[in-house]
Amino acid sequence: MHSNMPELSDSELLAIAARAAKRTPVKPNDLLILSELQLKLYRELHAAAGQFVRPPVPEGASPASSARVRGAIDNVLAEDEEMAVFRQMYDHLANAALGDQRVADQMLALSSGQRGPVGGFVKRMLRFAATDAYANTVQMLVVDFLKSADEQTLRAVLAQLAGMEWALDPDDRHQRMIIDPPDVVVGDFDAEVRRFRALGLYPGETTPGRSLARADDAVWETPDQHRIRTWRRRYVEAHRQSLDWARAKAEVYRRERERLAPYGHPDGLEAAVVTQLRQEADRASSARLFQIGDSLGQMALRRVVRRAEKTTTPFDPAHLPASRGMLFLDTPLALPNGRRIVGYVWGPWSPRTEEGWFLLRPDRLLEPVEAACDDVPWTWVTALTCDESLLKLPFSPYETLLARPGEILDPETRLRDPDNPERYRSGSGRQGGQELMLRHVRALWELLTQHKRSTVRVLAHQVHQLKPSKRDAERRRGISDSGQVENWWVDPDAGERFREQQPSEPREGGTGRTLAVRYWREEHERQQCPNSHRHAALETEKRGSCPHYEITIPEHPVGPADAPWSDRLRRARLRPSATPRHGTNA
Predict the structure, then answer these.
(1) 243-254 vs 225-241: helix axis angle to the nearest 10?
(2) Alpha carbon 475 to chain centroid distance?
(3) pTM surpassing 0.85?
(4) Cβ proximity of 289 and 232 under 8 Å
């Protein structure tokens, strides 16, 4: 059973059933209002599960293994309509129990055999349906389940309940379909729209796609300077005026899925949503634009992997290539959970107490965000995922990251499963993904600004200017940045240039030996002290108080230019002793 779900013993369930038996059975009409989209999604899943219940049933087959069922569940999750589908499933089961006492007895018998995290929720749904429990009880149960369940568990429950519907009502006699008439208000939709419009948001003129969808199968095309400018402009427009984006963000707030949000805003949900959207629009509208080539993206990823077992150096805002920026990756970063990160938006951020900012911790508890004590702003980072979003954008916001001045991240491997390094330990999956993205974007920032702290240059770049007439047009659209797009990649001559910068004479304190061969030294990092003349004094006062820079050294040749190439590394790799041994337990 999920730890976040309220515990409910069998005796309490029987008490609920007894109370329900004393009242006259009432059909749960308040659960029957469906939109056309919700009805379509439910019928797709219902029909897909029916093929595994109606004879002949393939031997050994289960609804969860059906490609058609998986596709129907994908559509439900992509539209964020899980609540509506669960409501209609419960209505079907409750109506079947009211119409036939034998079906109610079957539900009670089935509920007794349910075990585990999935079984705990299914058992409650069956017993509530068999006893015609109050609608608000069922809805609160579903809301708690959606808050605590991961996607895999949610998929399993949807498939299992869809199959049970057909098993309990094979002729589909107790199914009712009621669609809301055009003039009927469903919930407080119109009231919410009016409140958003009062705050300055209006529907866009373009046909929207699926806002903030969770499908990650969108095609990512390699960006160029024109696409990047267009994407930035549409991203700003969506956050400044799109009513659809605001309603999608409000739904995320209701389910408490946003990691950092003004949940405690005194003016209510709509004002909190608009506050966060407009802050994001301000960051993007004034951001410098960067395009990260594949070679630079791979170098940053290699740097993250090499540094995974070490703590990071303290974060210094001086390492940012710009105080406000927006970068896009030619090749997305693949997270262990299957998500693809295609870029980042960042800017300075200082939480205001009157806006009611809260941080959602890994244990799903909300923690108020305190303002910075030293008045130094934090850096807000929005990770962008490859997705289908509004205004023909191929990406949408995915996660919020915070980089605090002086913050140090512990070794990333502490979150990994020792038996399977590709997976995170139980309970740290989201936290591990957040730290991985933060390490990745920090590696990109530090590589982009390494030439400011060291003579070791590993990157090359090109700046694409915007014509003055188009720059004026961008300013009329609310873009305050110059519109320049900087394209960065790894200089293929960086290794040779680094070798030429090295002194030809042996350094003092060396072995005095002269190499007679040449070989390639692999890419690596070194610690560079920015104030070597004060290093000893600072370390004497407090160990670790002297901040060091992580400088990436490119792969470069070592040895005299006229010496022959060594095959030492090749022969070392071929030695039997070079093969890693997997030790057995003693």
Answers:
(1) 70
(2) 31
(3) no
(4) yes
